[in-house]
């Protein structure tokens, strides 16, 4: 049985926060693989056209090329339409019946989880890892008592391997604190002033420039 984490998102573009989460969780949770799942659909922002899923996919491949345990899955992009996490999770369980699956999200997604389609089923049909994010609280009150019973609070804990439990749980961790956001990066790139160039993996920065994304 392998232990695999899946990290869904827009990744518009993938940044150093996403990559640090992947690297850190691989070690902390003793994962065999960490898989990025870019969504086909990027929410339309009024100030610019949506970035093609193919560009977002390509940037993820460039950013992860050097780490053998970090992969990118086309499972959502190849559908060619918006997909809900509940459906992707069901498909992943079918594809990986013998593996232990973790679904990763940041604290902002966790805060909004009740807006997700069938959110209670999402939270109970797989393991989850919720990663802290500056500016967002890792609260637990909004998910209700029954789901709160599944929460394992690993904040302050560096190596979690002996804290993992049988059955589906929601692990909260503050092992990554990265103040980076794709929204800020897009805004900086469109102004032509990338204040923190280290926030973008070098190959992604080159790709963004080459294809004139976010300008
Ligand atoms: P945007 O600003 O456009 O919303 P983002 O930086 O949040 O972009 P997404 O692709 O939307 O990136 O995020 C995918 C997942 O990564 C989400 O679950 C989000 O919570 C998480 N995430 C992104 N950046 C961070 C960060 N700095 N710390 C923790 N989690 C993060």
Notes on the protein architecture:
- The chain is an alpha/beta fold.
- It has a single domain (3-210), classed as Rossmann fold (3-Layer(aba) Sandwich), CATH 3.40.50.620.
- Helix content is 33%, strand content 16%.
- The protein has helices at 16-28, 53-64, 85-95, 107-111, 119-124, 144-148, 182-191, 202-210; strands at residues 3-9, 33-38, 70-72, 100-106, 127-131, 151-153, 170-173.
- The chain has a seven-stranded parallel β-sheet, sandwiched between helices.
What's the number of structural domains?
1
**Helix/strand order, N-terminal first:** EHEHEHEHHEHEEHH
Placed side by side, the strands forming the largest sheet appear as: 3-2-1-4-5-7-6
Instruction: List the bound ligands.
Output: adenosine-5'-triphosphate
What would the keywords be for this entry?
215 residues, single chain, 33% helix, seven-stranded parallel β-sheet, alpha/beta, binds adenosine-5'-triphosphate, Rossmann fold
Give a short overview.
The protein has a single domain, classed as Rossmann fold, CATH 3.40.50. It is built from eight helices and seven strands.
């Amino acid at each position: 049985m392998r232990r695999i984490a899946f990290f869904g998102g827009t990744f518009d573009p993938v940044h150093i926060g996403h990559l640090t989460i992947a690297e850190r969780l691989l070690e902390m949770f003793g994962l065999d693989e960490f898989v990025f799942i870019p969504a086909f659909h990027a929410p339309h922002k009024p100030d610019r056209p949506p970035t093609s899923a193919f560009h977002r996919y390509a940037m993820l491949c460039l950013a992860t090329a050097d780490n053998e345990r970090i992969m990118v899955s086309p499972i959502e992009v190849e559908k060619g339409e918006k997909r809900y996490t509940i459906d992707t999770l069901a498909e992943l369980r079918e594809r990986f019946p013998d593996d232990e699956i973790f679904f990763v999200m940041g604290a902002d997604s966790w805060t909004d989880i009740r807006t997700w389609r069938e959110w209670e089923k999402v939270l109970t049909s797989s393991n989850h890892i919720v990663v802290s994010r500056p500016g967002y609280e890792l609260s637990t009150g909004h998910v209700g008592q029954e789901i709160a019973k599944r929460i394992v609070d690993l904040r302050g804990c560096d190596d979690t391997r002996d804290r993992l439990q049988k059955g589906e749980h929601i692990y909260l961790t503050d092992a990554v604190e990265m103040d980076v956001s794709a929204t800020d990066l897009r805004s900086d790139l469109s102004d032509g002033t990338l204040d923190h160039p280290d926030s973008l993996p070098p190959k992604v920065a080159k790709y963004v420039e080459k294809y004139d994304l976010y300008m």
